[in-house]
Amino acid sequence: MDLGCQDWMSALPAELWDVPLTNLAIPGSHDAMSYCLDINSPLVPSESDFFRLLDRLFSCFTRPAIFRWATTQDKSIEEQLSMGIRFFDLRVAHKPNDSSSDLYFTHVIYTHLTVLETLSSVATWLDSHPKEIVILACSHFEGLEDKLHQLFIFSLKKLFGSKLCPQVSESVLTLRSLWASGYQVVLSYDSQSAARHQELWPAIPYWWANQHTAQGVISYLDWNKDLGRPEGFFVSGLNLTADRYYITENPKQSLRTLTFSNWECLRKWLEEQAPGSDPKSLNIIAGDFVGPLPLCSLVIALNKKFLRIIS
After folding, report:
1. Active site includes 107?
2. Which end of the chain is more exposed for a tag (fewer CB within 10 A), N or C?
């Protein structure tokens, strides 16, 4: 199996083609679109009034800090796909006072790229890689009323068409069954507005540690593992989180330096994990800076362990 292959799913041994996707190890991208944040965009409405005031008065300080700490990726979505990422954490929003129906991605501020132009790139990439399956997790939806939700859902259905996999029992969601049906997209939509649309899947649980050290992240993930894995898809987040106090105390750091300095510890933990149906097994494993760090190859390689189990 070529671990650097952009078609790694079709390169998996045939013994894994009938294994539910929920039992495979799948690389994921946390806050996948933060590589194209617009430093001049407004803050998202959910930010506090105090931070909004601070940003108005001292934007020369707040904006570079936001950019350093809200940027979690540095590769485009097409590059992430080609590196092997198959789960994308997509935070969707509508800008306040925007008369158009254009939607953007967010992480404190908004992105340059719109949602539909980005997802069009995903659809085009999938056309060239017909045996690769992606899981798109749309969430947050700041500023979207139901009318805008329905317009967006209509656009998603039109864009992905027959590639969209409707809700089925996750136990039968295997590579072989998806290939036979021509499905390539599992689209999770974390909103009640999607309840009547069978093509859209419910929210996928994301284990988020909210810690700024590798030890904190690992302790949290191990604690969740001891409780037992969810039945369907779920994400283990290797991403670190710094609160405002930590950011203020460490003005020369960034999320990138924090991630890289903790990577070795996270890597060792990751290499000890295994996919499968066992209560302590993992499924989707997401991280930051998935380009410069070898997350994809490490996660894909975990499937060799599962191959040994079923052989």
Report:
1. yes
2. C
Name the β-bridge partners of 286: 28, 237
Report d(CA 137, CA 116) in Å as an integer: 14
* Burial of 194: CB neighbours in 10 Å, binned 0-12, 13-18, 19+: buried
Give the 3-state secondary structure of residue 117.
Answer: helix
Alpha-carbon distance of 65 to 256, in angstroms, equals 12
β-bridge mates for residue 282, sequence order: 275
Q: Name the residue among 219, 254, 259 with its Cα closest to residue 236.
A: 219
Q: Which tokens belong to 42?
A: 């407004």
DSSP designation for 137: E
Give tens-digit pLDDT for 86-140: 999 999 999 999 999 999 999 999 999 999 999 999 999 999 999 999 999 999 9
Neighbours of 10 (CB within 10 A): 14
Cβ–Cβ < 8 Å for 207, 284: no
Give the active site residue among 94, 107, 140, 212.
107
Q: pTM of whole model > 0.85?
A: yes
Q: What are phi and psi of 189, to 5 degrees?
A: -135, 105
Q: Tell me if residue 30 falls in helix, strand or coil.
A: coil
Gap between the Cα atoms of 60 and 62, Å rounded: 6
Measured distance CA(246)–CA(141) in Å, rounded:
28
Which residues partner with 39 through β-bridges?
none
Question: Which two tokens mark 224?
Answer: 């969740």
Residue 229 CA to residue 225 CA, distance in Å, equals 6
**Active-site residue, 94 included:** no
Torsion-angle region of residue 67: left (phi > 0), alpha (psi -120 to 50) or beta? alpha
Sign of CA dihedral 210, 216, 217, 222: negative
